[in-house]
Design brief:
There is one protein chain. The chain is of the alpha/beta class. Helices cover 38% and strands 17% of the residues. Strands 1-2-3-4-7-8-9-10 form an eight-stranded parallel β-barrel, surrounded by six helices. Strands 5-6 form a two-stranded antiparallel sheet. β2, α2 and β3 form a beta-alpha-beta unit. α3 packs across α4, α5 crosses α6 and α7 packs across α8. The radius of gyration is 19 Å and the shape is globular.
Length: 300
């Protein structure tokens, strides 16, 4: 499969002050998908502007025509499957069937305590995600759902008329552990990773490639155990969290080298951050745009 190049646009701009322009420019540059983060706030951006993911994607859907749109990633930290399913069905309709839901178990950051709860342990997050994702799948594919779980329930839920994309919009499941990999194999149309976070500060790019190779192999094993062909799943790498950091965005050649090494592992889509000045995502806008327009042709 040919490599797809996508971008992630953090929701930090007022729509009338640059927000709309970025999403429209992403379409003009030919990106396959433009994603945004689905957080209430995030890391060093916590005290600055930060807008909601689903309203932002709704606005982006009305401002673009061809560009796919999505979240990287939605999680149970502050969401419930029932209202989320209704919002996603509506967003899929507004966009004309251009939505991908990136979804994962969530982390221990600000989102994990914003509703006043104690931070969940990794096991609690996995337990919740293990119930959240299958229920969301049902809510988006079945006209009527009744379900009672330990964490999430639905009573006489109706999701009519359903998604434009059938049987529902695609799930891109973020996972690295065995339980998450199994959920990706069961419910995903794609799998998402950022690499091995333990290697970010002290690892090497070569170690990162090997860690990603192992993750791809684990996904293949999870698919095989369920009788599914792992090649059916797109494999998405969100760039910026490996030891390479932002160096692949320093030139077209640097990105082609980075992407080529990861394509060899089986990745079908690489997502790069839209440049943000004075942040960990700072990059030269002109080089970024050259990568968007030139790099894929060199790789495919």
């Amino acid at each position: 499969m040919s490599l797809r190049l996508s971008t992630v646009i953090l929701p930090i701009d007022r729509w009338c002050e640059g927000g709309r322009t970025k999403w429209q420019r992403a379409e003009d540059l030919g990106f396959h998908t433009a994603y945004t983060y689905d957080h209430l706030s995030w890391r060093t951006f916590r005290d600055g502007p930060w807008f909601g993911a689903l309203p932002t994607l709704t606005a982006a859907a009305t401002a673009t025509e061809r560009l796919r749109l999505g979240t990287l990633v939605t999680s149970p930290n502050f969401r419930h499957p029932v209202p989320l399913a209704k919002e996603l069905m509506s967003l899929d309709d507004i966009s004309g069937g251009r939505i991908t839901l990136g979804i994962g178990a969530g982390g221990k950051g600000f989102d994990g305590t914003a509703l006043g709860q104690e931070p969940w342990t990794p096991r609690e997050r996995a337990d919740r995600f293990g119930e959240f994702l299958p229920l969301l799948d049902r809510l988006l594919t079945q006209r009527e759902v009744d379900a009672e779980g330990a964490f999430y329930s639905a009573s006489e839920y109706r999701n009519v008329p359903g998604c434009v994309q059938r049987p529902r919009l695609p799930f891109a499941v973020a996972a690295t552990g065995p339980r998450g990999m199994r959920l990706a194999a069961q419910h995903g149309q794609a799998w998402v990773t950022t690499g091995d976070p333990k290697l970010y500060d002290e690892g090497t790019p070569e170690q990162s490639v090997e860690a990603l190779r192992e993750q791809v192999e684990k996904l293949g094993k999870a698919c095989a155990e369920l009788g599914r062909d792992a090649t059916e799943l797109d494999k998405i790498l969100l760039h910026g969290f490996t030891p390479d950091r932002n160096r692949p965005l320093e030139s077209v050649d640097a990105f082609v080298d980075f992407a080529g090494r990861h394509c060899e592992l089986g990745f079908t889509e690489i997502v790069i951050h839209w440049p943000i000045a004075d942040s960990g995502f700072a990059a030269d806008q002109s080089i970024f745009e050259r990568i968007a327009t030139e790099a894929v042709a060199e790789l495919n």
